[in-house]
Amino acid sequence: MKKSQISIKWKTFCIFLIFAIVLLGVLWFFQIVYLNDFYKMIKQKETENVLDKVEALLHESDDPASEIDQLAANYNLGVFITDSEGNSLYNAEYISNSQMSSLPHFMFSLFYDEAVANGGEAVIEFKGSEMQRSIRENLNQGTGMELPEGVDGESEATPESDEEQPENILENAPDSADETSEEQSGQGEGKIEYTIPPENEMTKEQFRQNIGNELAESVIYVRIIEVDGQEEVVMINSVLTPVDATVTTLKAQLRIITVIIIIIAFILAAATAKSTSRSIIKLNDGAKKLAAGDYSVKFDADDYMEVAELSATLNYAAKELGKADSLQKELIANVSHDLRTPLTMIKGYAEVMRDIPGENTPENVQVIIEETERLTGLVNDMLDISKLKAGTISIQPEEYNFTESIRHVLERYNKLREVEGYTIDFVYDDEVNVYADEQKMYQVLYNLVNNAINYTGEDKKVTVIQKVIGNTLRIEVVDTGDGVKQEDIPYVWDRYYKDKTTHKRALQGTGLGLSIVKNVLELHGAKYGVSSITGQGATFWFEIKIDPFAEEE
User: Fold this and answer.
1) What pTM did the predictor assign?
2) How many Å apart are CA 410 and CA 424, to the nearest integer?
């Protein structure tokens, strides 16, 4: 059963849309869900950097007031600098719902002692008007210092209580830690609430933090430094919660951006999917025609680099398949001619010997035998080609006298020399032994000489040349015929190749030997080739290692 598959058009479309949706999801996740966390992290880094810059200004500048003011304005911070007693030295307030300049002395002492206990620095966090209780716990456990009475309370201060205990802002505070825990159980464990009393003559300069926004988070960085031998306390107040209007604006913009991106992604996905699938559909249609035997089909899809390369490859494949098909048809025609000629002669001589008395002579019988041998050679060559191409034939190399083997091949043409007047010369300097398959190399030599005899010129001259170059033996077989056209040289070794201009019956062999030569030489790892000038004959050559185990110099 054929497996159902989604088309590349819809797959590309879906991938594009999924990518757009994931991208929007990531934007929503980081811009909305984790906006507060990112804003808090960034503001903390900014505040720490400003604290370092303020410290540097106090050490390096004679009049740092304007530069500190500029820093506070640029980063929307509150900068409050005092001496070690809490007396104000400099103040820059750029946070509308906080007022550090009215920091009560007891709270300054609280921050100062926390910084001293932590090596000169402290970080005090607020949520709304509630201060982290960890400060009180650290002081009680680390320094043994008790917070002033009334810090943990929640009731409002009165003028009378301020007069009696000016360091305390709240009254009616519990007298013990246990009572404190009980009273704060409804407020949230681990927090110290600082409640702002109603404004009046006594309290209008009261310390303020996150007034009107009980969900806002803020932080006060405290650092004790020494300037010109005097101890100074730098406090920087920063709001860690983004402004509600900013968050609302971001959400509104992100909704609009989401709609726009989805629409654009939909259009781009549809266009890209259609464009990609159109090219592949064209290639698929062309490939079907090619499979049906139409080798004239052209692949011209070039929308993308990979598609263009595939089109070029398919065009090359169509060209080669067409050429192979043409050569195969020519081979069938040529082989049919080569088979028909001996069969016709065998049949004719046999009928003569049967019908005419006295024609049953040894000469006629010899003709029938020779034509039968020609048929056998043709069939054997075709079988050898098939076996070599299939890789079912292996070589059995051994050391033997290659020069002697060439002489044995040429002796087979003695009758041709005497009867037809052919001249076959063998040029060599020394006897050479090689390590190769003697039987198959004999077949290579025989086929090359046959080819030269079949296509040599009117002078009927063929020359075999043996050369030794280092560890390489080079054999050249030269004829004086019409030669091979330059455009046909790459195809002369092909098993389907025949010169299109003429086809003549081979004087020797079957006419299929060059393909056998090519495959046998490749089994031996030999180099081979042909050089030819039209009208001046051709030289077929090959080079084989004399000793394949010898190291190259």
Assistant:
1) 0.44
2) 8
Q: Record the tokens describing residue 312, joined without a space.
A: 């070029």
**CB 98, CB 237: distance < 8 Å:** yes
Spatial contact of 238 and 222, defined as CB atoms under 8 Å apart: no
DSSP conformation class of 31: I
Whole-number Å distance between alpha carbons of 53 and 59: 10
DSSP secondary structure string, 230-259?
A: EEEEEEEEEE-SPPHHHHHHHHHHHHHHHH
CB of 131 closer than 8 Å to CB of 152: no
pLDDT for the residue numbered 468: 94
DSSP 511: S
- Tens-digit pLDDT profile for residues 342-353: 788 888 888 888
- The whole-angstrom separation of Cα 367 and Cα 354 is 15
3-state secondary structure of 540: strand
CB 108 within 8 Å of CB 82? yes
Per-residue pLDDT, averaged over 156-165, amounts to 36
Q: Is the pLDDT of residue 108 over 80?
A: yes
Two structure tokens written together for 292: 């049906």
At 128, is the secondary structure helix, strand, or coil? coil
Nearest-angstrom CA–CA distance, 348 and 500:
30
- Render pLDDT for 26-50 as a digit per residue (tens, 0 to 9): 887 777 777 777 778 888 888 999 9
Q: Are 95 and 211 in contact (CB under 8 A)?
A: no
Side chain identity at 388, as an amino acid letter? L
Q: Would you call 531 helix, strand, or coil by DSSP?
A: strand
Cα 292 to Cα 282: distance, rounded to the nearest angstrom: 16
